[in-house]
Amino acid sequence: MDRRSFLKTTAATATLAAVGLPVRAADPLKIGFIYVGPVGDMGWSYQHDVARRAMEAKLGGKVVTSFIENVPEGPDAERALTQLALEGNQMIFATSFGFMEAAVNIAAKFPNVKFEHATGYKRADNLATYDARFYEGRAVQGTIAGRMTKTNKIGYIGSFPIPEVIQGINAAYIHAKKVNPDVEIKVVWAYTWFDPAKEADAAAALIAEGCDFILQHTDSTAPQAKAQEAGNVFTFGQASDMEAFKPSPRVASTIDNWAPYYIKRAQALVDGTWASESTWGGIGTGMVKIGEITDAVPAEVKAEAEELIAKIGDGSYHPFTGPLKKQDGSEWLAEGKTPEDGELAGLNFFVEGIAAEMPK
Amino acid sequence: MITLIKRPTPSRFWSFTTPVLAVIATMIAGGVLFSILGKDPVQAIKVIFWDPLLGPNAAYFRGQLLVKAGPLILIAAGLAVGFRAGIWNIGAEGQYIMGALAGASVALAAYPAESHWLFPAMVVAGALGGWIWGMIPAVLKVLFGTSEILVSLMLVYVAQNFLAWAAFGPLKNPEGYGFPGSRNLQQYPSAHNPELFAGTGMHWGVVAALIAVIATYVLMQRHIAGFRIRVAGEAPRAARFAGVLPANLVMFCLGLSGALAGLAGMFEVSGPSGQITDSFNAGYGFTAIIVAFLGRLNAIGILLAGLLMALTYIGGDMAQLMLGLPTAAIQVFQGMLLFFLLGFDLLTHYRLRLGKGSK
């Protein structure tokens, strides 16, 4: 069978299934995933895999899933996506920002396969995007860190200077400052999402500078281990709960909880109601979850954090609420104003008071 | 007791047989590894070596084989010339990055002008970028006697930092909402290195790789310069008496391998990859070293070795997907290939004698 006729057959099968006319009713729908890291990274890719398994368990029998891990961003991602499409997967999750161009190209080649791309901004009729408001978790972390720090120095391991990370640094700083006017934030750019050695170096550098809280936007537990070694340094679980470091140094965590979204989208595929859209979920929708706040946190701080979580969750408070100024002193948000999602999604400046410079 | 007796000259028979033996041994040891992991070893080997070539959907994967093998062969062809002369360029990965950066910079500077001259200019820039990065260790070696192994390797890390800087800074897509990464050259017709025939995976980089294979074959087998290179590697003193200038040789070998690696990077960024991103380099420069040795530093051998290596990548991905093999197992499998090749190499240079060695 040549490629073209194969594509047609696959496409036809996919169409039939997608409009709710499975070739055989008992056939489960195939759903594929590509991960940028190993499933054992205990962070980003691990959380996507947890959600994949939850989806399969929840929709028991109606879907079967498979995945390819450690997919480099670039042409290899295109091949991996094509491979999943050729294998007859009717929905494919591309779970890293760097898969964006590949997802756009392959979605165009397989118009009857549904694609879901995490954290990107390019969509098509069969390419949806989804992302989580990680900055909501950062607001909680900033509050706890601001209250508890003894040195008034908070360290932040940045991965890349992209909007998602900049939102996190700003949210952490704004909320730490709110409860502790003397606080400063120090940022080290690791230029990686997952590299235990580099992350450990970054954590060590921040600790040496006197930071007693380390926030990380990278996925390994290396910074947690460094903090434990140093003693009297606290951290937050990133992406996954990182419960091995409870009750201290890890005093709370921001958990990427993709399962409800994956279940919802798979259900939509099964029901034939899937449509391309952009989802940006947060604490309110359960996509961002705050892990257990341990007893290392004083009770009144814990209560304050929980109140903040509740207010963000019910929508009565937005972590970016004016008055807020940009780092250069110019006005960003007037009293009581909150930013549009579109503006936040492209955020590329620090707020006033952060001394760190944006890498050029 | 087994004793080893050095052969007066390397065995021709074994130098052709050992790569085949290494592949077979890798299949056996890999099969054992896969069965320990609870997978059917025969099925796993079939998925890795057979399915991408002749299994279902093979028409697509055969094209991908060329996409994957093209840069490996192009880089390895250049490296092998230097390796024959005993000049060790370990930094092809850096030269690959710099070639891509140079080529993409030319395209992005011209954007959005359309011209037939743009792509040729990018090819020249790509080769030049890699050539310059290869000439740094060459010049340092000639002037100060530094080790080209260390300098070329260290320059990989410098190049990676250049790449990150470019992706986040000057080459960043101004319409990319602040996200890192350049414009996609696939959407810029004059700069795009497209598939020459739809579905075949054949792009200009693959064509360049084939030309490089033929050119280095002619150079090494039929040309006096190739003879000098080989003599320099096998008998450096004799080469000097024969009037081979070590300085020229070092510059030629590092310059050539740098330029070819740069070209590979340029064809990749303008074609299959499309974009300069901080993670653009996918390790081709390092894998090409394996390809060069697997191919016995011989142009035709490298062609086959490049295709074989690409096959293990593509088949490895398939094994992950269809059998749930972890990537780490696939990487061990690829590592075994080089391990066995170097191990069996013993047979090329030594004769085995069973029984008691004579005292």
Number of helices of chain A: 11
Helix content range of chain B: 55-70%
Q: What's the gyration radius of chain A in Å?
A: 21 Å
DSSP strand content of chain A: 15-25%
Shape of chain B: globular
Q: Main β-sheet of chain A: number of strands, strand sense, barrel status?
A: 6 strands, parallel
Quaternary organization: heterodimer
Radius of gyration of chain B: 22 Å
Distance between the termini of chain A: 52 Å
Average pLDDT over all residues of chain B: 89
Strand order of the largest sheet of chain B: 1-2
Which spans of chain A of ≥5 residues are poorly predicted at pLDDT below 50? Answer: 1-25
CATH level 1 class label of chain B: Mainly Alpha
- Per CATH, which architecture of the largest domain in chain A? 3-Layer(aba) Sandwich
Q: Please report the total strand number of chain A as a whole number.
A: 14
Question: What profile does the largest beta sheet of chain B have?
Answer: 2 strands, antiparallel
Order of helices and strands of chain A: HEHEHEHEEHEHEHEHEEHEEHEEH
Number of helices of chain B: 15
Distance between the termini of chain B: 13 Å
How would you describe the overall organization of this protein?
The complex is a heterodimer of chains A (360) and B (359). Chain A has 360 residues and is an alpha/beta fold. Chain A has two domains: 3-132, Rossmann fold (3-Layer(aba) Sandwich); 136-255 and 290-345, 3-Layer(aba) Sandwich (Rossmann fold). Chain A contains eleven helices and 14 strands. Chain A has helices spanning 3-18, 44-58, 75-86, 100-109, 134-148, 163-179, 196-208, 222-230, 259-271, 299-313, 341-345; strands at residues 29-34, 63-68, 91-94, 114-118, 127-132, 153-158, 184-189, 213-216, 234-239, 250-256, 278-281, 288-291, 324-325, 331-333. Chain A has a six-stranded parallel sheet, sandwiched between helices. In chain A, strands 7-6-8-9-10-12 form a six-stranded mixed sheet, sandwiched between helices. Chain A has a two-stranded antiparallel sheet with strand order 13-14. The radius of gyration of chain A is 21 Å and the shape is globular. Chain A starts with a helix and ends in a 15-residue tail after the last helix. In chain A, 54% of the residues are buried. The model of chain A is unreliable at 1-25 (pLDDT under 50). With 359 residues, chain B is mainly alpha-helical. Chain B is globular and about 75 Å long. Chain B has a single domain (40-324), classed as ABC transporter involved in vitamin B12 uptake, BtuC. Helix content of chain B is 70%, strand content 3%. Chain A: Keywords: Signal.
